[in-house]
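Action item from last week, closing it out:
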Amino acid sequence: MNRLFITRFPEEDYTVGVQDPITLIDDTEPEPDLFVAKGPLESYDHHPYPSDLLLVIEVSDSTISYDRGPKRFTYAGAGIEEYWIINVFEKQVERFIKPRPDEGDYEQREIFKMSETFTSLHLGDFLVSDLLLKE
């Protein structure tokens, strides 16, 4: 998955972070499994803020409850526009969009199965099977 994102989003236009910190509005710095931010890395003198982020992804196996609960609420509260959980065991992508920071949750949750394609808010089309770990 890392290779897919690094290849697809050129470093002169995007910053792809792999287990790198982001800075949220409460100054916490979670380290999502992957994020895509606007602009090249050189344009940042800080970790990306929610307004910089185009996508935040967590790859979830044993952490599914935490990723669906506290992490989702944290990202929504910070106004992260698009949050994906790559659900390894159920072989699906769970996408959360339309954050409601005051409520600390997302308005919309969608689930995409292995053979499906879906469109990111800012980053184009993705095939679920390209995002899941290969056995």
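Closing note: The two ends are 13 Å apart (CA to CA).
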